[in-house]
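Aim 2 progress update. The chain analyzed this quarter is reproduced below.
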Amino acid sequence: MIQPQGHEKGEAPASDQRSESTGGSKVAAERWALLVPGALLAAAVIVIYRLAFHNIQTRKSFLILKDEYEAVIRNLTAEPCSKCPQGWELFGGRCYRFSTHISPWEKARNECRSQGGNLVQIDSRMEQSFLMQKVSEKMNNPEDMFWIGLTDSVEEGRWLWVDGSPLNTSLTFWYNTEPDNWTDEDPDGEDCARMGEQGQPGFLMCWLDKSCKVPHRHICEKQVETGRLKCV
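Predicted structure tokens:
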């Protein structure tokens, strides 16, 4: 048999060789197409991680420096501190003093004034709760009550605080049927308010009217003192 010219026995046709060559190129190209994006993605992840780590470290350093700076400023400038004189108790930005001796209402008021304050004026349920807790612990008997800065001596039934402001009728703590202006003890009636219920710190409805002439202990109130002292 005469074989076609240009092809030796066992040699693949040129068209087949071209197909194999083209197929190999495509496979290589596809591999590169997959490898390049993967490599770029890996590089991007590494860069992002390094940047994030750097930012975290920078932020930590910034916060540490900020805290140190604020501590230095506090020590240098010394923030104003709220404090009370010896014998007074601090609560809610006010100073309170519970007397250990008894006196009529007007004398008690003058004593508070001489110390830079006045008889206590109760403006909130929280303040009443604080005072009642203290008073109930200090009372020695049921009548060992404390004067507060409330009176209707100017006009019967019109209760005013020592600063002249009227009693808020939605914020009162009268006991039971008080005030009753009982006149058996004093013909002038009961024109001053006292508070207390021995051994019952949670009992808030403890205001009673009483003759201003009767001696009782009292509660003084005044503004806190402020100074350029380090707060502890």
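Residues 71-79 have pLDDT under 50 and may be disordered. The first strand starts at residue 81 and ends at 83. These observations will guide the mutagenesis experiments scheduled for the next reporting period.
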